[in-house]
Design brief:
Elements: H1 9-18, E1 23-29, E2 34-39, E3 65-72, E4 78-87, E5 93-102, H2 114-117, H3 134-149, H4 158-170, H5 179-187, H6 191-210
Antiparallel strand pairs: 1-2, 1-5, 3-4, 4-5
Helix pairs in contact: 4-6, 5-6
């Protein structure tokens, strides 16, 4: 028996193909809590990864469309996202079709594109859909750091990298299980390097605190 979300795979592929390379389409399976399918994946996620949706989210999915809302990709690029709730014949939510649009390349280019990159005041930045997604929290911290330094991940110096790791630590990122492998993948560092840098940063902070 085919999976109930299988008919939506061509929809994901069509959307991602039409707007490639700027759009990613993701199918989330609400029964398993896992990503079922990705098209044009640019968010470093894979089928079978956790959807990281809030427990009990199914019962709160009254609307058929959630968003649009703002997101940050792993490299700090701005995304505009929208989610469609997929239901079975009885109306029960069985999946989510999330469309993530990378708008970084468009921002500031033309005034007529302003409506594409602005988000309405009445649209919450986050929703029940996003509250448990720790990857979003990591992406947001990295985005804040890169924006403040006016640089990119490729342009980070060793000192900048320590500053970013310190900022992630201060925001509680490394208290999240599985966060270190995700950060290591984004920063293109080994897990051992992350732990070594993190230990040195914490030791330095403790020493500075003792000297005050």
């Amino acid at each position: 028996m085919p999976h109930p979300l299988s008919p939506f795979i061509p929809v994901c592929d069509a959307i991602a193909t039409l707007f490639s390379p700027h759009v990613e389409a993701v199918l989330h399976d609400l029964e398993t809590g896992l990503i079922f399918h990705l098209s044009n994946a640019f968010s470093k996620r894979r089928p079978g990864d956790s959807s990281l949706n809030e427990a009990g989210l199914v019962s709160s999915l009254d609307a058929d469309v959630i968003g649009p809302y703002a997101k940050s990709n792993w490299d700090g690029r701005r995304l505009k996202a929208i989610t469609s709730v997929l239901r079975d014949d009885s109306g029960k939510p069985i999946g989510l079709l999330c469309i993530n649009h990378d708008i970084q390349a468009f921002a500031g280019l033309f005034d007529q594109l302003k409506s594409m990159v602005d988000f309405a005041e009445t649209t919450p930045k986050t929703s029940a859909l996003m509250t448990e997604d720790w990857r979003e929290a990591v992406n947001a911290v990295i985005g804040d750091f890169l924006a403040a330094r006016r640089t990119t991940l490729a342009g980070l110096t060793g000192s900048d990298m320590d500053g970013l790791i310190g900022m992630l630590d201060a925001r509680g990122v490394f208290a999240i299980r599985k966060a270190v492998p995700y950060v290591a993948e984004i920063l293109k560092l080994s897990r051992a390097t992350i732990y070594n840098r993190l230990g040195a940063i914490r030791q330095r902070q403790d020493s500075e605190g003792d000297n005050r």
